[in-house]
């Protein structure tokens, strides 16, 4: 028994010595190390296929409400009037380029954008209150660009109170209890 304790103690001392010796360069400021690490990571990101340019249309927040597809969220069932989107219960999926006027209130709904990689989507928020209990209320799955425009004099509300099972929670996302008013 004494031999096992002595072996454990010697192993502990050796491990401690190794750990302490690795702290020799601890006087290097963390910010310098972090900056160089971040720069190295950024330099490894391939951006060859990404388009970072903005056309005049991309920078123009104007929209034509008459030709836009109207999406009305409701706890009793969301509706779509126009083309490029479909509703299933409270959830709505946008699958084509266009302007979408979003209104209504739903306490457990998802707006999914699943368009082609060449489609530009303009979401116009006009009195929208949207939340989802098991993930994001707005999920941009695919599109070339998605623009979010706030209708004049509108108040839009995204409660973020979420009760999720840990098995469905993304490791980088932590549920929190607040609201975003935009």
Note the topology.
Blueprint: H1 2-21, H2 30-44, E1 69-74, E2 79-81, E3 85-88, E4 91-94, E5 98-106, E6 111-114, E7 120-130, E8 138-142, E9 145-150, E10 157-159, E11 179-181
Parallel strand pairs: 1-5, 4-6, 5-7, 6-8, 7-9
Antiparallel strand pairs: 1-2, 3-4, 10-11
Description:
The protein is an alpha/beta fold and 182 residues long. Helix content is 19%, strand content 32%. The chain contains two helices and eleven strands. The chain has helices at 2-21, 30-44, and strands at residues 69-74, 79-81, 85-88, 91-94, 98-106, 111-114, 120-130, 138-142, 145-150, 157-159, 179-181. Strands 2-1-5-7-9 form a five-stranded mixed β-sheet, with no helix packed on it. A four-stranded mixed β-sheet has the order 3-4-6-8, with no helix packed on it. Strands 10-11 form a two-stranded antiparallel sheet. The longest helix is centred in the first third of the chain and has 20 residues, at 2-21. The termini are far apart.
Features:
five-stranded mixed sheet, 182 residues, alpha/beta, 19% helix, globular
User: What is the multimeric organization of the chains shown?
Assistant: single chain
Helix content: 10-25%
Strand content: 25-35%
**End-to-end C-alpha gap:** 68 Å
Low-confidence stretches: 1-9, 11-33, 162-182
The biggest beta sheet is recorded as:
5 strands, mixed
Average pLDDT figure: 75
Query: What gross morphology would you assign?
Result: globular
The helix tally amounts to 2
Number of strands: 11
Task: Provide a brief overview of the structure.
This protein has 2 helices and 11 strands. It is of the alpha/beta class and 182 residues long.
């Amino acid at each position: 028994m004494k031999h096992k304790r002595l072996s454990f103690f010697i192993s502990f001392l050796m491990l401690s010595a190794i750990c302490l010796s690795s702290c020799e360069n601890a006087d290097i400021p963390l910010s310098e190390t972090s900056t160089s690490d971040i720069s190295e990571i950024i330099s490894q990101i391939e951006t060859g296929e990404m388009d970072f340019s903005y056309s005049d249309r991309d920078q123009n927040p104007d929209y034509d409400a008459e030709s836009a597809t109207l999406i009305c969220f409701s706890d009793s069932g969301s509706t779509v009037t126009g083309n490029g989107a479909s509703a299933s219960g409270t959830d709505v999926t946008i699958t084509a380029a266009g302007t979408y006027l979003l209104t209504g209130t739903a306490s457990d709904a998802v707006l999914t954008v699943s368009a082609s990689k060449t489609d530009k989507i303009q979401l116009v928020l006009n009195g929208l209150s949207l939340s989802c209990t098991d993930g994001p209320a707005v999920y941009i799955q695919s599109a070339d660009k998605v623009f979010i425009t706030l209708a004049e004099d509108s108040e839009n509300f995204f409660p973020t109170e979420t009760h999720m099972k840990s098995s469905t929670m993304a490791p980088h996302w932590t549920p929190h209890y607040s609201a975003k008013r935009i």
